[in-house]
Records
---
Amino acid sequence: MAADKVKQILDWLLEGARAAELAEQVLQKLCDDLSADGLPLWRVGIFVRTLHPDVLGRSFVWRPGAQVAVNNATFSILDSDDFLTSPLARLFQTGETVRRRVLNNEGVDASPFLRDLKAEGGTDYIAIPLIFTDGSLHASSWTTKAPGGFTDDQIELIEDITRPLTRVAEIRALRRTAINLLDTYVGNRAGERILAGQIRRGHTDTINAAIWLSDMRGFTALSDSVPPEVVVDVLNRYFDCQVPQITKHGGEVLKFMGDGLLAIFPVDREKNDAADVCARALTAARETREAIAKLNDEGVKSVSGQLRFAVALHIGQVLYGNIGGGRRLDFTCIGPAVNLAARIEKIAAKLGRSVIASADFARYQRDAWEPVGEFSVAGFSAKQSVFGLPDDVPQRAVAAQIA
């Protein structure tokens, strides 16, 4: 490659590859440019570990004439034969560059991955570590179909490219990790707002949203009667019945409070899609009820027998943003609408129903609900009309007043 072309590519990487918004776009442009300028690349892979409860890392694979393929690798890959016999496993064990001259059958017999490369015409493979500033180890791999494999000069060029590429990969990985952590601990929408700079107390918006407030009945008795690890396992499986349903239907989980869960389904200001939002929240509630029934069929029980839950659905204005004291903030929602949802959730428990709704929520789907009574609610001067699902059989006597 010409020296001026190499310098342009190195300068672009040293400046952070700012023209490429996504990580895969960095690899796409880099490999397209290197290939166009004479480096005989056939396959280039980048593997970056990430901090995520379910994902070990992300892989990016470039091939000429195709878009970069992006995949998530789960932790199970670490025990797979394909990985354990691959050159990357050796790289992660030693932290050193691994080269396999595929044309000469180096390591091919022991590695299904290398056998596949050779079958497709690959002649030379080199895996180079990407070492981040915190010492964590990641990897790049470079493959060619050139008849004699890579030359020494080409390998030296790849090594020169890898150094600034490592820094770019680290910057992108750190941002990705921040997004993953925020999504995991505060939710997607809240995470986006925090990354956008809403990190000061008082950064709040008034939004209209359907509110989901649920808890597990009998949780206190469960906590007092079984070992803590059993309680945690039951809770996790219980929340697994709710969180996927909420997020699938456009909701965002804001907070876990012991056995309680607070979520919102925001109403789009421009579309004013409150009816659709309430329909999606109700669908999530029905699916949660089915998931918990299935969990009971599998034999997961509380102290009093089968797991039972209650969810209250309401819609109204909430204050959504940073609330807290000093330098310890919480991104959540508050307001009278949240208070009312919490009060009527207690009514659900008293009524022995799994799903109930306020009058404001039920008016968007009148055919789906039946009235179950009016109740005095602490903090609200007027009695509140409460609605239940016709197929939700009450398991306890109705209480006429909720303190």
---
Amino acid sequence: MKPSTHFFKTLLACFFLHIIHSIIINTAMAVENNSIEVLQNDPSKIYGKVVDVINTGSFTYIEVETNNDKVWAAGPVTPIQNGDMIGFSTVMPMPNFHSKSLARDFSIIYFTNVYMTDKGASTAASAKDKIKQQKIFHPNNTNKSKGSGEVDIGGYLREVTLDGLNGETKTFSALKGKPLLINIWASWCGPCRAEMGSLELLSQRYNGKNFNIIGISTDDYRDNALSFVKQTKITFDNFLDHKLLLENMLGAQTIPLTLLVDADGRILEKIRGARDWNSLENIASIGEVFNINLIR
């Protein structure tokens, strides 16, 4: 008995479906392998398989196994699992870092603003929304409740005398007339140390021109703050907090904390967590908040 025409049609349809399915699978694998190859061949990135994940509620710490070693990274809270293939930048290494939130030491850890996967950046955002989206990440470097004297967004900074570390003593009123970026840090804070290089680069481009930049240390001991300023060769003005006065007023329950203040002393934004302040995205975001064009 000869097979029916219907049987041959069904067999032929299954054959073509198998071919199409194979093409789709092979194409997807080729795209994925190409993404992997791009990350693996980028000397400014570390790429490997995740073997440990620790979420603190503010950072996602991951241990990554590369071809040669195992390394740790800390970045914004990201849904990552063991076995995921992850890439991240090597531009912010922190040797001999002690994490207070984890109560452990790392011989070296890389702080990153974004984890890269085969599907792209885990925290992609437009320049317009960059700062507002970044505000959702709250590093747990300190664990203090909100101070009763905190000035919220939209409020004006109260007059305070600022004790100079690498410059003269000033007041907030003396800084009026231009927009102001205030960065609150401490010498023991790993993320603070990690972002300071990019903040210095931002200062070299814009400080005293389009807007002013100052830093405020919450260190308990002046010598520790001075040592950090000298070690990092910061050129913009830094000041030392006294008796938690500035910490409470600015709302620095967690650090690093960066405030964007208008020319009249009104707080426009509060950004918590370390950033690459010299990136085009963050520069564009700062310009948008200050309503000035910084990208020319």
---
Amino acid sequence: MIEAAETLAEDVGVSEACRSLGVPRRTYYRAQEKKDEPAARPTPPRALSDEEREHVRAVLNSDRFCDSSPRQVYAELLDEDGVYLCHWRTMYRVLEEHGEVRERRRQRPPQRRVKPELGATAPNQVWSWDITLLKGQGCFYYLYTIIDVFSRYVTGWMIANRESADLARKLITETCQRHGIGEDQLVLHSDRGSAMRSKAVGDLLVDLGVAKSYSRPGTPTDNPYSESQFKTMKYQATYPNRFESLAHARQWARAFFPWYNDDHHHSSLGLLTPATVHSGKVETARQQRQNVLDDAYKDHPDRFVAGRPTPPEAPEEVWINQPKSKANESSESDGLAVSGREPGAHAESRGSKVALDSDKRLAKLEHPLVPSDKARIFLPKLAPELCQSR
């Protein structure tokens, strides 16, 4: 506003310009006054010299005190060494001058973790597993759960009173044997818990020919299917506030998991049960639903304003972190309806160098389980973490 008044004052005068713009003339004139630069603050005679300040800084950053606060350094020098350098507030000011009021130790640079991108077009291609706590009477029990990403079918579970790599190894072994998992067929995805990252589990996956994949640190959305299954379980009506004993927890789980696999109509599977999808009976179930809807449409067509009703479809592809290129391809493809919450996926991830044309794509959807000698599952930039049999 002062600048506008200065410009206008050249034409109409100061008084008229200030009156028109509502600027007090005293404010206008004060802005015209030349302000002297503030004088430099004199150094008080009691201040530390440059050599003393450098010595204080060297002591604070030494190996002995690099992980201590100035308060701790001040007290330790007085008590143990009988030395007084300066007040601890002066120590802070010395560090502030050099931008060192922070962690002064040499820090490991932040690591950029590669986002896992795993896809499946059929059961037993990608499994996810995790461990959750169940409240007991003054203790916790540990529930180990393995879930198939494509069908949401719980392929294996176990409840124990501790988290152990040996127990996880036993569960994974028995589950793979029960479902006939062959070499180079399966990717086992998990977070970075101690049992998941243990050498015992890693060696087991090498022996089984199963590739392993991990979530990024502090990123629970990288393991969404296990987390979602745990939420469904703990919000189930019969889930108790606390389990009376380990036997009680196992008894409850023996009833819950058959219900979840065989009776729970999963919203992300076109309201089909995980067992239906896992057993490959999707088309049979959808055809049965279509027959019922056709009869209802025939009896009351006026109640279906959008025309002939159709049952919801189960996804043909499921991803953990679908790449953008695959998402665009799926949205433009005919016959592939991809949900915004659970986008479709492909059995090969972004690391594959072979682009599938439309004919090969359709053939892959019809025959998703390729022979083990031709199976390839790639995780981008994670080659050192893959465990595959040679």
